[in-house]
Amino acid sequence: MSTARTLATAARVLRQLRHDPRSIALMLLVPCVMLFLLRYVFDADPATFDGIGASLLGIFPLITMFLVTSIATLRERTSGTLERLLAMPLGKGDLIAGYALAFGLVATVQSVLATALALWGLGLDVVGSPWLLLLVALLDALLGTALGLFVSAFASSEFQAVQFMPAVIFPQLLLCGLFAPRDTMQPVLEAVSNVLPMSYAVDAMNEVRAYADPTGDFVRDALVVGGCALLVLVLGAATLRRRTA
Length: 245
Fold this sequence. Notes:
Blueprint: H1 3-18, H2 21-41, H3 46-78, H4 81-86, H5 92-121, H6 130-151, H7 158-168, H8 170-175, H9 187-193, H10 197-210, H11 216-239
Helix pairs in contact: 1-5, 2-3, 2-5, 3-5, 3-6, 3-7, 3-10, 5-6, 5-11, 6-10, 6-11, 10-11
């Protein structure tokens, strides 16, 4: 891998995003809009928003970044851009790292906006530091980016890329502990939830919501989410194809 090539790839992706206002709006505004709607869905019971708002602060960016990243990367391949790039002295690792860096910067802005809105605009009540909440939201967004880069290698059209969402995201959403405590689930489902990264993202958010200082469980959960993002990026580089079959 080359730092210069990685940075050049990231700069190219950011230039493309600059000319795609709809994608920018989807990535930056949709999580904020979803949080805003959620707050006023529970207008009569703000405590319910406090109970699930922190978890969804991590889930919404993950889903958004997954969708946008998978489609954007697939578009590069179907248009022939990826094949031309890889014909140059540009390795798969450089390409994936460049994409991760570019979308990671967008994810950072997205996480800052969503966290600021939740805490100071919508009155989300958390005991822990806002910086810890932001850290987990950012890790979740980066995980969504990594998953999007990975699954794009297995899709041959943008429609197929969208179809991966029910397969990759929805099971995690159901089993992450948002709807019911994981330890009350059927044992097989609990075992499955224990290996899904979104479960640890929700657990980390719950730790920030309940405790003023970082706990050992929080550190473990954050490391698992970050480690999964890194692992999926490595797998994405290994499975990246030059063109769509």
